[in-house]
Specification:
It contains 23 helices and 14 strands. By secondary structure, the chain is mainly α. A hairpin with a 2-residue loop joins strand 7 and strand 8.
């Protein structure tokens, strides 16, 4: 019987033909040959291992701005809308989502079918199922290897389901591939309720992490030369923690907004009843992941200069923050994207840092943080700028002169009060006109950032530049170098899908929701200490207009969420957090602002000359009036054609 073809995933394989994306050096380099039968694909250990790496290659490329759904799809970044098709940043598919231009006819970043910047994750799930169904065939595969490979494939299958769940909400569960001779009705699968999907993924992760030390997934990667990036138990447990915190969050836990989302047979896909036990389940999962990670030496990263580096205390703190993301395989990392390269991110985050004739070097600065994000960071006292009773919030847009005490900025430069007396993460994460940039190749003095038009780092033409006047320092590895010929060398790092600070914050959030107000402070303060800040208790008691905020659940929730937004800024977390917290409808219905980057600065390094137009440059400019339609925009649309092919599928609300 001819297999009924669906356009939302491929369900069977009569001929195994695998098309692999290009990868950097590593275990993903080995790909299967085009083989005529599945038997040949599993004829021996070597061929089976190639197929396992095919399953790994199904993971989304989160190091790529064009394919990471959490990056420039929200309000953290803004880019010049006339950039395409000239931009080095690539396609504008993600940015179209930020502008409210998502479509059910041809969805942007379509990970259901594999189009618009996405790839079909259902195909990846199918490959995992094929592997699990055939891994018993190689006679030369050692039992301990088979045990590990099965656990890896189960994790990958769970992760791909999780990725789809986070994007689309309730999804079909594909635990086994449908047989080639299946009838039409068997192929037409339905979406499953949220709780069923979460339990399925959680149980699959439990299977992947089962057993003690030395059983199944390794506790840590021992063979660093060939296996970095493969899944460990702490990584799998951390993803389970993220899954369960998401499931306990307001978007999924007792959300009445989706009461009408039902299958064609009337089956409800959202449970409208809030369940407090989900937070305890999430907290337990977080603690299990933390214990497993810390037992293997995972810890918050702290920068330690080598004998060739010189750094004062402020620089050490800044590099502890930056390198927690940018130092490859550092000890804080739990799970990294091994598909793709971060060069594109670095090139688009970094402004030109060098004098002519090195202007045209490909450093585009298009990935521009918004003014909203610049205001999100704390003051130096560790509280929000509108809460600090010692900080001049009302005059934050007025000009001030940089003094020798303001070590993160160029002395005698004129810039707005917003940039003064801010926390270390502000200066580590963003750059602006008059800021400084520490790089390994140019430690003394730190490189100045002059961002007015035609200045070293500023706008020089009308297409590729920072539209907001801010630059994403956090994502630039300190070993980026521009050669004498203008060519740029970047040090690639694996994109941090999850690091320990993220896990600490998830644990603090879950505990607070269970009514434990003490333990979250321990984990918040670990992160704040690394960031050079006082404890929550000290900061709010001594500097906040609401000193008792951390002593009640609602107040501490707000603190945890703000801490999460700051600590994980520009890492693709905020997009998802705003959704699971059900805050996107408020936060993303707000204007996007930047500075007046068209103001002339000239090709000069004279501070006096650069200060001449400071007042005009430091004028707020409206970049876009962002809109978010609720409940529609909380989830991706399923491509409309899929609903015609499979009439059991129902569309997400509003689409």
């Amino acid at each position: 019987m001819k297999l009924f073809k669906t356009t939302y995933f491929i369900l069977s394989a009569m001929v195994l033909t695998l098309v692999m994306p290009s990868c950097k050096k590593g275990f993903l380099d080995i790909v299967p040959d085009n083989l005529p039968t599945l038997d040949n694909a599993f004829v021996n250990r070597s061929e089976a291992e190639k197929y396992l790496f095919t399953c790994y290659s199904s993971l989304p490329d989160e190091a790529n701005l064009n394919t990471n759904p959490g990056m420039n799809t929200g309000d953290e970044f803004w880019i010049n809308p006339i950039t395409a098709p000239f931009a080095q940043i690539g396609t504008l598919e993600p940015f179209n989502i930020a502008k409210g231009l998502q479509s059910k006819i041809s969805p942007a970043m379509n990970y259901w079918d594999g189009s618009g910047g996405g790839k079909s994750l259902w195909l990846g799930i199918r490959n995992c199922n094929i592997f699990l169904e055939n891994v018993d065939k190689p006679i030369d595969l050692q039992p301990f290897e088979k045990e590990r490979w099965i656990a890896e494939a189960k994790f990958l299958k769970a992760y791909l389901h999780w990725y789809l769940f986070r994007m689309y909400g309730p999804i079909p569960i594909v635990d086994k591939n449908i047989a080639v001779d299946a009838n039409v009705e068997e192929v037409r699968v339905s979406r499953q309720p949220v709780d069923s999907v979460v339990n399925y993924i959680s149980n699959l992760l439990d299977e992947a992490t089962a057993g003690g030390s030395g059983v199944g997934l390794p506790d840590k990667i021992v063979n660093l030369s060939t296996e970095l990036g493969r899944i460990t138990k702490p990584a799998a447990l951390a993803i389970k923690a993220r899954l369960l915190v998401t499931a306990a969050s307001p978007l999924f836990n007792g959300n009445p907004d989706f009461n009408s989302l039902k299958n064609k047979d009337g089956q409800a896909l959202f449970n409208p009843t809030y369940d407090a036990k989900k937070w305890q389940r999430a907290a337990d999962a977080c603690k299990a992941a933390i214990d497993a990670a810390e037992a293997q030496g995972v810890a918050l990263y702290k920068f330690s200069p080598s004998s060739l580096q010189t750094a004062d205390n402020a620089t050490k703190i800044e590099m502890s923050i930056r390198n927690a993301v940018c130092e490859k395989w550092n000890k804080e990392l739990l799970f990294n994207s091994i598909v793709g390269s971060t060069r594109n991110i670095q090139m688009n985050a970094c402004p030109n840092l060098f004098l002519a004739p090195k202007f045209d070097n490909g450093l585009s600065a298009q990935l521009a943080p918004t003014l909203k994000m610049a205001e999100m960071f704390y003051t130096k006292n560790g509280v929000p700028i509108n809460e600090d009773r010692t900080w001049d919030y009302d005059n934050r847009y007025n000009l001030k002169t940089v003094t020798a005490l303001d070590s993160a900025m160029v002395k005698d430069y004129l810039t707005v009060g917003l940039h003064f007396e801010r926390e270390p993460r502000f200066y580590a994460d963003v750059m602006f006109d008059g800021a400084k940039m520490y790089m390994q190749s140019n430690q003394k003095p730190a490189i100045p950032i002059y961002a007015k038009r035609n200045a070293i780092s500023g706008k020089k033409q009308n297409i590729i530049y920072s539209i907001s006047g801010y630059y994403t320092k956090k994502l630039i590895n300190m070993n980026l170098v521009v050669g004498d010929n203008g060519g740029v060398t970047t040090e690639n790092y694996p994109w941090p899908v999850m690091r320990l600070a993220d896990l600490y914050l998830l644990y603090a959030e879950a505990l607070n929701e269970t009514g434990d107000l003490a333990t979250p402070l321990i984990y918040l303060n670990k992160i704040r200490e690394r960031a050079g800040l006082p404890t929550v208790e000290t900061s709010w008691t001594n500097f906040s207009t609401n000193p008792g905020k951390y002593t009640n659940k609602d107040g501490l929730r707000e603190i945890i969420q703000r801490e999460r937004t700051i600590e994980l800024a520009f890492e693709g977390s905020r997009f998802w957090d705003l959704r699971r917290w059900k805050q996107a409808a408020n936060v993303l219905n707000a204007p996007i602002y930047g500075w007046n980057v068209d103001v002339e600065g000239g090709a000069t390094t004279s501070i006096a000359d650069l200060n001449k137009n400071a007042q005009e440059y430091n004028t707020r400019v409206l970049l876009f009036n962002q809109t978010f339609v609720s409940p529609r925009d909380y989830f991706w649309p399923i491509r409309e054609n899929n609903l015609q092919v499979n009439q059991r599928l129902v569309q997400n609300l509003g689409w």
